[in-house]
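User: Watch each token:
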Amino acid sequence: MSVNPEYALTPEQAQERLNELALSGESCLFWVPNAKHEHFLKQLDKPSWLPGEKSIHIIRANNRGGKSVMATMIAGFLAEPYPNDWLMKSKFLREFRRPNRGRIYTTANAAETTYQDHTKEWLPRGRYRTKKRGAFDAKFRFPATKSSFDIFTFDRDPMAGESTHLDWAMVDEPLPQKHWSALVSRLTFGGPIFFFFTALEGAGWINTDIESEKRIGKDVFVTQMCAEDCCIEHGVRGHLPHAYIESLKQEFDEDELVARLDGAYLSLAGAVYKKFGQEHIKTAMTPIGLNVSPRGSITL
């Protein structure tokens, strides 16, 4: 990934920005990832990043796992670096080409509520300009680096903005499959595609089409995060009270907890196989691959 030195921070510039942001009480300075967030960031440095190469980075996670905050942090850093200790550790993020243009794909509800709140809290103040485009979509421009990103909701026509060239893309919550081809085609010169989601309804195609065995570790890198990874008592740098995690077990059935607590795929829980017949039944047990969750539940 080539670097434009005009937009790279020297140690002196980083310290100057650090002082400037610290005085203003910027939240982006003090964001701290848990251990699984950190693992996800380290995975960004694994691909070779040859010209034109695309790489997919997935964090499948529990509810309230801080996914959207991390997406906002990375989006802002890609647009214009700021001296957050954890993000600065990533060579890929530090040296990403700038100017660049990115896009966050998400639900209309998340665009209207979650991202309105997170961009105000976690993007460095005074470094960007924003323009609302329609009911939920917005564009963020960073004059210092001439970089920008926008928010694109799942309910829009996949072909809207077809001619738009992107350097990176993020997906927050399961992307409807109809958007996938158009998203990939917009990364003309390659770049990263980030997925941040809880694997509820509509996520099954990601498991079968993207998280295939032949792609994992090559152009697809997956981090699975469970609620205990985010726990203040049992996780590393966690933020969720253990009592909150325990309360969720009373709110949802076992199938949903596989996704909401364990970060696994709901589509594999309680599945009904309509084409299963007598010819598939064997007299002896056949070994199969099993995934055992931290709570002891098993999924195929």
